[in-house]
Specification:
168 residues, alpha+beta, Glutaredoxin, two-stranded antiparallel ribbon, 6 helices, 9 strands, 30% helix
């Protein structure tokens, strides 16, 4: 499993983007994790799935709500990563009104989740291999802090915990 001090794995995530006001797709677009994190501080959180209860009611809204606080703490971008396709992540972004505050990034084949060692097997619940619920502060591609949830919990990957770590 990835740990503090490690470099994020080389992976490509997908991001669905729309033309402002037009509703036309200009995505999905590939996001090279190594290039996109270079020279930046990223508040990254991952979760089992779009539109799932805890993820929609608590996880994403907390990061949207604290966007200005993260910026004030020196965070360049907030990323939400989930094992879903880019179209689902785009629809979820609209539903959650993330706008330009949170980048909703798809890990469709769970390649990033597998590479970090932070997978969650939900095959028994009909959801297949997913990402565990966690948050991490990433500085110039390296993990500065990591908060991995115990199964079924939402206690340490919330926005408030990662924000406190970003403030140092």
């Amino acid at each position: 499993m990835i740990k503090v001090g490690d470099t994020l794995p080389s992976a490509t995530l997908q991001e669905y983007s729309e033309v402002e006001g037009e509703g036309c797709s200009i995505g999905p677009n590939a996001v090279d994790v190594s290039k996109a994190t270079a020279g930046k501080t990223i508040a990254l959180f991952a979760l089992p799935g779009a539109f799932t209860p805890t993820c929609s009611a608590k996880h994403v809204p907390g990061y949207v709500q604290h966007y200005d606080d993260f910026k004030a703490a020196g965070v360049d971008e907030i990323w939400c990563v989930s094992v879903n396709d880019a179209f689902v992540m785009g629809a979820w972004a609209r539903d959650q009104k993330t706008g330009t505050k949170v980048r909703m990034l798809a890990d469709g084949s769970a390649d990033f989740a597998k590479a970090t060692g932070l997978t969650l097997d939900l095959t028994g619940r009909g959801m297949g291999l997913r990402s565990n619920r966690y948050s991490m502060l990433v500085k110039d591609g390296k993990v500065a802090s990591l908060n991995v949830e115990a199964p079924g919990k939402f206690e340490v990957s919330n926005a408030e915990t990662l924000l406190a770590q970003a403030r140092g």
